[in-house]
Design a protein that fits this description.
Two copies of one chain form a homodimer.
Chain A (H helix, E strand, L loop, with lengths): L6 H18 L2 H11 L2 H9 L3 H10 L2 H7 L5 H9 L3 H7 L5 H8 L4 H10 L2 H11 L6 H4 L6 E3 L4 H9 L9 E5 L5 E6 H6 L6 H4 L7 E2 L4 H11 L3 E5 L5 E6 H18 L13 H27 L2 H6 L2 H30 L4 H34 L2 H31 L4 H29 L1
Parallel strand pairs in A: 1-2, 4-5
Antiparallel strand pairs in A: 2-3, 5-6
Helix pairs in contact in A: 1-2, 3-5, 7-9, 8-10, 15-16, 17-22, 19-21, 19-22, 20-21, 21-22
Amino acid sequence: MPTTSPHLEQHDHDRAGLLQALEAGDLDKVQRYCDEDLAPADLAHIMESSPGRVRELLWDFLSDERQGAVLPHLNEDLQQAFLAQMNAHEILETTQDLDHDDLADLLQQIPEPVTRQVLSLMPPSDRATVEGLLAYPEDTAGGLMNTDLITVRADVTLETVLRYLRRLELPDHLDSLWVVNRQFRYVGLLPITKLLTHAPETPVREIMQDDIEGIPATLHEDQVARRFERLDLVSAPVVNDEGILLGRITVDDVVDVIRDSADHAVMSMAGLDEEDDIFAPVIRTTRSRAVWLGINMLTAFIAAAVMSQFEATIAQIVALAVLSPVVASMGGIAGSQTLTVMIRGMATGHVKRDNLGWLISRELGSGAVNGVLWASIIGAITIGWYQDSDLALVIAAAIVINLVVAVCAGATLPFLLKSLRIDPALAGTVVLTTITDVVGFLTFLSLATLFLL
Amino acid sequence: MPTTSPHLEQHDHDRAGLLQALEAGDLDKVQRYCDEDLAPADLAHIMESSPGRVRELLWDFLSDERQGAVLPHLNEDLQQAFLAQMNAHEILETTQDLDHDDLADLLQQIPEPVTRQVLSLMPPSDRATVEGLLAYPEDTAGGLMNTDLITVRADVTLETVLRYLRRLELPDHLDSLWVVNRQFRYVGLLPITKLLTHAPETPVREIMQDDIEGIPATLHEDQVARRFERLDLVSAPVVNDEGILLGRITVDDVVDVIRDSADHAVMSMAGLDEEDDIFAPVIRTTRSRAVWLGINMLTAFIAAAVMSQFEATIAQIVALAVLSPVVASMGGIAGSQTLTVMIRGMATGHVKRDNLGWLISRELGSGAVNGVLWASIIGAITIGWYQDSDLALVIAAAIVINLVVAVCAGATLPFLLKSLRIDPALAGTVVLTTITDVVGFLTFLSLATLFLL
């Protein structure tokens, strides 16, 4: 009988128990945890949050079958690491109980020649299915779909359908059967709840739903997710250009897509990859972080080079050195707010060509008002600090200009980057702060050179 | 018959058509779009991505019933705006077809007295249900659940269950029936696919599943979402402390939770609220952005105040003014990478007390290695630029120190902020960059004062 204790606490409890047993060297207990007590997803989670040594240990405790069940739940870094230790025979052995779509995802983590080897060892019918799945990029509807379809014809009765179902093993998340014609073209769906509530002699045609369209196999996974969200779907049919039914997508895969794209948005702003192993050894972590530090060093030196053009001015008025970073950072903040709103608006589909003009003018208006507001306050602080009203006027003017430029840049950069096929979430902030630093230093220091010397 | 055209394109097409009809003053066409052609979620999406004038226009085209269907799909800002225009009678009229959980969510957007008025106008049984839902905070399992339960007893046969179902109108996302005992305590679930594949005389007890625990009504929605993800659920039972079945949560609500928490993570890093209306008028946008600019201005002035302590040094060596921002920004980048990894690790549950020490030492190691690497490179650039090897040594030392401090701060801040009940996603970056700016300026300029003057 189920208890009411939160499952997460149970999971934490098991995790602690497993790690304790490992520590104590109680191998029987570890084996029991690995064999029975923990679900594959929980084992994967524990392995992901452990250092390398513990991972290897746990992995060796798992039977081939358990290894196969755990693999799809691991991040790509770990999948690659474990798959790299196996040859084609072992990979096939380990993954034999997996769904075809999970297997296809795993095969994309290993070198092409090994993939070909694994495929050549598979029974021809399985091979054809998996090859079909591999033909679609991972981030499309075709890459997400599974092929565990149950199809019926529109002209049969529910009684026939029920008799047919009793002979099958039904897949998970079965909420609808797919209705197809003789050419296997998708024509509608039959919710299984209707099988329960309608008379057995009813023909499928009479109660099938034809308002859910087939998802084209080439549709991007983000758009697939949006469709699931908008229509509250549990599963949806995937079709090719001719409308032939290829497979189905279930909501559990869509949940993963949403989670991954969320993680991507957050991680890429810091130059990180959401599939990275956060428990990677020092050397790997250092390498993956170094690239981003290098890019940012370049942008910092660009700003420094701009500032160094004004060394003569700064030598005369040292306050300029102190206040320059303030001007630059206010622009950075204002710009990144606009940038974030725009990137999110593009992702949700709220920002379109037809309302872009309105949005940009709104951002400009808001940037100008905030510019004047904070320019006044910063000007006042400057007077209080340095007793210099000319300096205050110069910094105020620089703040207004930098905020307006920042907001313009924040509003237009995502579109510019996207049209150059650069991910705005990854590059947006770097490019933006380079602009706001350069413009901030340039306006503040050149206005100072003109009016204060 | 469904076509294979991507639904999103259809949605874009409808949106363009609707806006065109509005523009052209073709009111019959607008009315048709509002009455039939567009799904409530699509209408809500179009309204969210339109300026205020268009929204009001479209809203007036909607019948009471359609208004009610659209409301739950709007962001909170818009829900509040439209609900504020109605009195209690109108709200009840408009929302009469909504599920109880959607109604409860809406009632949380209006002032308490109006909520009480609406409740007092409802039939007693509905009122009791909605009041029960309002008792749970919006962000808990109780706040997410719906009360459209179909329950059965363990001792009846499938035939009885089937007969019972035929008399009901089945709710959406019905994948399981809930098995309860005489006290309405949750004891297990009966997947409806089993109704199709097992003989009618089978008792429920024999085929019910008891491995899915009831979700406590007080569990936080993020943990509910994690459980759905881990166990690939479509629906799950919600229970109180005594294990009494209160309601069920369906995956469509969980998808919204995941999407919202993702949006929250991204938006709060720029000091924005994910429920804000991105098409709000200039004045509202300006106000919501101003707070964040003000906070950041304070931190910028803290850094400036630190720098101003060294004005005498800067006056003698102007290069220090040029290079200070480089030191500060390298620390900011390194720290925010660690911060992001930690915040995400906490959200996914990968970072725990038992592996925190390992993670911090790993981050420190990586910070030190990257510190030495980039200190050498920046030192070399400085020699090339200013032909001053002492200056190069000073900036290199400052970079190493700032990167190590930044990484420590990034690793520990999330826990510190969380224990102070401050959202790390919101405050983390601000606090972190204040630290890296202050430490960067302080080490670089004081080392320079000590060794270069």
